[in-house]
Design goal:
Strand order of the largest sheet: 2-1-6-5-4-3
Helix content: 40-55%
Number of strands: 6
Distance between the termini: 74 Å
Order of helices and strands: HHEEHEEEE
């Protein structure tokens, strides 16, 4: 009897790690599936963002930002925060910035947040105010948050500050004007 009990206990101990490994693999597979779906959905939304940017469509852009979003555009010393400040900044700066090409470097998904790291290059639109400026390039960090409808909204987006002496740094003061963060 003791021998059977010990054998049963040894067998149970041997099987527990295998079961735990199987459950861990299932969790890893579910996590990978969630990350892939979240990334796909976010990239679809960001495609809409890029199209709206190219068309200078501030109304569509505003729908993609969280009401309390933080935004810093290229050449801007400080970020603005909140729907009104983001709208004012986009209306003032977007036409002068021109079209943008974006390349994704890395995506990190964690629960209800998605962190996106990208490289951008902007070529000013011919004939637009400020179009005499040189093209800009750098990094964008974007934080997306799931909304109540399981879509994504931009919670924070910062374009790296241009290097001293670049065209954006030399832009007129009104180009970098914006409401201070709340």
């Amino acid at each position: 009897m003791v021998r059977n009990t010990l054998a049963g206990a040894a067998l149970a101990l041997a099987l527990i790690p295998a079961g735990a490994r199987a459950q861990s693999a299932l969790s890893t597979a579910e996590n990978a599936r969630y990350r892939a779906e979240a990334s796909r959905d976010a990239m679809t939304m960001l495609g809409e963002w890029q199209n709206a940017w190219t068309r200078d469509d501030v109304r569509t852009l505003l729908r993609l930002y969280d009401p309390d979003a933080l935004l810093r555009l290229p050449g801007q010393a400080a970020a603005v925060q909140g729907r009104e400040a983001v709208e004012e900044l986009l209306r003032g700066r977007l036409p002068a910035l021109g079209g943008m090409e974006v390349e994704t470097i890395d995506v990190e998904v964690g629960g209800q947040l998605l962190f996106l790291f990208q490289r951008y290059s902007i070529a000013p639109t011919a004939g637009a105010a400020g179009s005499s400026a040189l093209a800009l390039s750098g990094n964008i960090t974007t934080v997306l948050e799931r909304d109540a409808n399981n879509g994504w909204r931009i919670r924070a987006q910062t374009f790296e500050a241009p290097a001293a002496g670049s065209a954006a740094a030399a832009a007129p003061a009104e180009a970098s004007a914006g409401a201070p963060p709340r």
